[in-house]
Amino acid sequence: MGAISLTELGSKLAGLMFIWGTIQQFFPYTLRKRIKYFWQKLENYFYPYVQITIDEFTNGKSNDIYTQVNSYLGTKSINKDAKYLKAEKSKNSKSVAVSLDEGEEITDQFLGAKLSWRSHIETFNENSSGRKNSRPIEKKSYTITFNQRYKEMVIGKYLKHVMEEGKVIEFKNRKQKIYSNNCSEDWYWYEKGMWRDINFEHPATFDTLAMDPKKKKEIVIDLIAFSKGKDYYSKVGKAWKRGYLLYGPPGTGKSTMIAAIANFLNYDIYDLELTSVKDNSGLKKLLMETTSKSIIVIEDIDCSIDLTGKRKKKKKKSEETVNEDQEDDSDSSKEKASENKETSKLTLSGLLNFIDGIWSACGQERIIIFTTNHKDKLDPALIRRGRMDMHIEMSYCKYEAFKVLAKNYLDIETHPLFQQIQGLFEEVNISPCDVAENLMLKNVSEGPEICLNNLIQALEKAKEKASKDKEAKEKASLNSKNIKKFSTKLVGRLKTLWK
């Protein structure tokens, strides 16, 4: 029976081949072309769809489009009617990634077009090695099906939209890193790069940051404008970067502010230790190995290295010959000439080029942050607008900042003792870290009232100390005036006796 069926099938195929050969032989080319055209019309009428396949690997290399589509569809599948999903989590991701299982299909809408996505997984054994127990290989792909009249829109706009959204999802889901620089030549030549990293897991946010709410809001608005400012920076012809100077007394939350900014934008942090940098060339190499969407931090820049000594010497010499105002910018020819004499050292000019020179534009969406306890010690050229665009004062803790800490540590928003505390904050300077230490619960038996009383005692001690310091200062000032008066009288008498 099977032999008869095969014979009949072969006979029919032979007949079709004979008919097609006859058409090609006796029908002219133009007529054949017409027939083909109408056949395509008829086919498109009954099935007017186009299908695009996106494989996981292309020519043995990972296909970035597949990865971005996978992220995009994973998010879409949660809100759609897909029933068969897969959940995966890699060591570099924050949360579980959901994707479509084999054969699952979901639909998407874009600019009026309806698009159908389907997941495909083809499994086969690799027999080229000759091993019996070789592991099966999976070939994964996605297919997108849509009406052919949307072909140009899908290729030109929709796929670009999917890729961009997929990148955003991947970026949000990845674990943040904090990097430290290592300028050891051995480390670099072993292809380990000039940075070492670990996962960044600091819990600080703007909600938990002890700071005046108005000032926090200004910073958040500025950060949002920066993160969305790609087109604007391109329009005005500036590199997509921004500088922040955090200054104030110790313990006022400068490092916590950096962590809050990183968590708000989901950026990586590059903690640059200038004392480990040998020269300007090394600084440039470090910059080239940083990524976009990152924060480059130099903490306590006034204590890192002496970047102002050479400038001060130059100013003393220049005062004898030229006006002091002409020596105000670091990019002068004299500064460069001085730098050429000390090419083996890190100079102020090299650091300024690192911040906003030509090489600073080798990446996009970067934030550079300096911290210092003494703003007045920094060279004006280092912190001028355009380099450090926003100067943020991290001041002593005031009442509004205290309420944030009380909410964080004690989970209270009001208390009868708040009024007394408010009065003390108006008279005393105390850092947020000192306030937090007094509000922190030391054991389970302590309650909010005990912690608030501890804070009141600390504020009263600080007030008493400030009062004593003021009295001592006034006494010293009075003694100084008395000594000056006595000296003046003594000199006057000596002059009289001399005459």
From TrEMBL:
Catalytic activity: ATP + H2O = ADP + phosphate + H(+)
SMART domains tied to this protein: AAA
InterPro entries cross-referenced by the UniProt entry: AAA+_ATPase, AAA_N_dom, At3g28540-like_C, ATPase_AAA_core, ATPase_AAA_CS, Mitochondrial_chaperone_BCS1, P-loop_NTPase
Source species, domain of life: Eukaryota
Transmembrane segments: none
Pfam families the record matches: AAA, AAA_assoc, AAA_lid_At3g28540
Keyword Nucleotide-binding: yes
UniProt GO MF annotations: ATP binding; ATP hydrolysis activity
GO process annotations (BP): response to stress
SUPFAM superfamilies: P-loop containing nucleoside triphosphate hydrolases (SSF52540)
Cofactor: Mg(2+)
Alphabetical keyword list: ATP-binding, Hydrolase, Magnesium, Nucleotide-binding
Family, per entry: Belongs to the AAA ATPase family. BCS1 subfamily.
The protein's name in its UniProt record: AAA-ATPase At3g28510-like
Organism of derivation: Nicotiana tabacum (Common tobacco)
